[in-house]
Design goal:
Blueprint lengths: L13 E5 L7 H7 L4 E6 L2 H14 L4 E5 L12 E6 L8 H14 E14 L2 H14 L6 H15 L7 H14 L4 H7 L8 E2 H10 L2 E6 L13 H10 L3 H12 L3 E8 L9 H5 L3 E3 L2 E5 L7 E5 L5 E4 L2 H13 L4 E2 H8 L4 H13 L4 E3 L17 H9 L5 E3 L5 E3 L2 H6 L9 H13 L26 H15 L14
Parallel strand pairs: 1-2, 1-4, 2-3, 4-5, 5-6
Antiparallel strand pairs: 5-8, 7-8, 9-13, 9-14, 10-11, 11-12, 15-16
Length: 495
């Protein structure tokens, strides 16, 4: 909408995910969008079988999963409103990249949107050095675990203190920091795949254009710094280099050293039908997990920011400050812009829209095209989604569990053992007694952290046996922070 086009309604659409793996992305979508249809394809028969089993256990009837080569994708598959290819484009040969674009060309609906992520130069130049040394040291290993072990060994070796150039050591240090806490699966895909061909953004955009597709914008301001958020002098300099939007984006990558992009594409013939971005915001809903500090400089009364970004939103206008405080109090729900505009008076609606748009580009707030509904109205019998209950029960500690905001939360002992019981049949008292039993046998660890950066509750007395307080905090975290309670009636897991 900010790019001026209307996308298909997500509550009733058809979605294709290419490279769906074991279903970590497609299954949560199918669960929360029961009237939409989903097709996931992947080369791995193991991944597809795992995804099918999970879909069957959760009771999903709106998702089809196929073990299929992209090159064999049938021409009679019909149209899709959304095509998703995450972690695919850079990791496939050139002829298969062509096929990915051809699938978008043939099967994207007239108003459809394609999402494609890929590694980019110039930032990946330094990472390529690390990848090549890892490949060299692990070249004799065929077992994935041994390859990952050898790769880590090589990075440790090359990162030792010795008289080598400082810029080289800095590159190695950053790479080591990036991978040392990651699982082997990330290392094997990101660095050790046989195919890994980063591209310049302009190359990607021109490739899409060859197949009748047009770059629409970045999929996430949280992941990518847009041109709009740059200081005025830098923005004007880039604008002076070229009037071509694609070329400007390439200059932005040169400036920021981008290593990765998540891009949205649409059909080249799509025309802007919505006004400027600030006008589009007026029809949206806004959400923000915000913190507020007092302004320390002249002309700044309050500063708002989010834990997801280093950017800050300094405000002096009382109306705008009131709206951002409303967003902070409403989290995790989104608030209609119309409501915020009423609250902000006498601030002009257009000025408020510009503030919110700037905060969105900075990754401080989110924009939604529909109301949010996350929390169960009656928490006396807490209920998590069926998918989350299975993920928590069967996953290892730190293995992600998917919440209703489609975000992954690291599993923790509280989540692992308490969440599977939150199926809407047990009262809070029954759950509390079971939790005390699990604490007694050592399964639930009373450490008060829940394994999440966003949840660090103070559980005074919990270690001394005040389990009632611990339980109340646990339920609060599982329902309010993880947002895993399904809302209202309907099929289990429906928001």
């Amino acid at each position: 909408m900010l790019a001026g086009v209307v996308a298909p309604e997500v509550t009733n659409c058809r979605v294709l995910e290419i490279g769906c793996g074991p279903g970590a992305n497609i299954l949560p979508m199918a669960m929360t969008l029961p009237r939409s249809e989903f097709l996931g394809i992947d080369l791995s028969s193991v991944h597809i079988e795992d995804a099918r089993k999970m879909a069957q256990r959760v009771g999903l009837r709106n998702v089809e999963l196929r073990c299929q080569d992209m090159l064999d994708f049938p021409e009679d598959a019909g149209e899709f409103d959304y095509v998703i290819a995450h972690g695919v484009y850079s990791w496939i040969p050139a002829n298969v990249r062509d096929m990915l674009m051809r699938i978008c060309q043939r099967h994207l609906s007239p108003s459809g949107i394609a999402y494609i992520s890929y590694n980019t130069f110039p930032g990946w130049r330094s990472k390529q050095v690390v990848r090549e040394m890892m490949l060299f040291h692990s070249r004799s290993q065929s077992d994935p675990k041994e390859r990952a072990k050898k790769a880590r060994e090589m990075l440790d070796f090359a990162s030792q203190k010795c008289p080598s150039p400082e810029h080289y050591k800095a590159t190695l240090a950053l790479s080591k920091q990036e991978v040392e806490h990651r699982k082997d699966g990330y290392l094997l895909h990101e660095h050790l795949e046989i195919e890994n061909e980063p591209v310049y953004f302009e190359q990607f955009a021109r490739h899409a254009a060859d197949f009748g597709m047009r770059y629409l914008g970045a999929a996430s301001s949280e992941m990518e710094i847009p041109l709009e958020i740059l200081p005025a002098a830098q923005r004007q300099q880039i604008e002076g280099f070229s009037a071509d939007a694609i070329v400007r984006e390439q200059y932005l990558d040169f400036l920021l050293g981008k290593t990765f992009r998540e891009s949205l594409l649409c059909r080249a013939e799509r025309q802007r039908t919505i006004g400027p971005p600030a006008e589009a915001v007026a029809g949206m809903y806004v959400a923000g997990y915000l913190t507020e500090t007092s302004g320390q400089s002249v002309g700044v009364k309050a500063i708002f920011n989010s834990h997801r970004t280093a950017h800050k939103m300094p405000l002096n206008d009382g109306g705008s400050i009131a709206t951002f405080r409303r967003l902070r109090g409403a989290w995790p729900h989104a608030v209609a812009f119309e409501e915020l505009a009423q609250l902000a008076k006498p601030t002009e609606s257009a000025a408020l829209a510009r503030d919110i748009l700037h905060a969105f580009y900075a990754g401080i707030v989110e924009l939604w095209t529909r109301p949010t509904s996350f929390l169960a109205p009656d928490l006396e019998k807490p209920r998590a989604t069926a998918l989350a209950r299975i993920q928590a029960a069967e996953g290892e500690i730190q293995t992600p569990v998917t919440n209703l905001r489609h975000r992954e939360i690291p599993n923790h002992s509280v989540m692992k053992y308490l969440m599977p019981l939150m199926d809407g049949t047990r009262t809070r008292e029954e759950l509390r007694r079971e939790m005390e039993r699990l604490i007694g046998v050592g399964r639930i660890k009373v450490d008060g952290q829940f394994g999440m950066k966003s949840a660090r509750p103070t559980l005074l007395g919990a270690e001394k046996g005040d389990h009632a307080a611990f339980f109340e905090e646990a339920v609060k975290q599982l329902n309010l922070v993880c947002l895993l309670a399904g809302g209202g009636g309907g099929r289990d897991g429906e928001t």
